[in-house]
Amino acid sequence: MSALLRRAFDNLTGEWQLNLENRVPPKELYKARIASSKPSLGLISNSTAVVIGAMIVAPLMDPILSLAFGLSIADNRLVKRSAITVIIGIATVVCTA
Question: pTM for the complete prediction?
């Protein structure tokens, strides 16, 4: 029974293997998340629904991903920067709505 629990616990430790053809170097991933934590304009297209949805959601996706990444690697600077960007984005959407 304890061997079964030990195996289950080992599977939940977060050390899962991903089947990726090319692994992304940690420094490159970190730089991409830093760059993505800045505010952006989102997606521009001819469809009204796409433009409205993009204006609300797309500018917040990268900062949200950067926030999650910062939390997972315990980088306070990235967490603060991303959280501030998300808060500004939410406030902007609420105020303009």
Answer: 0.52
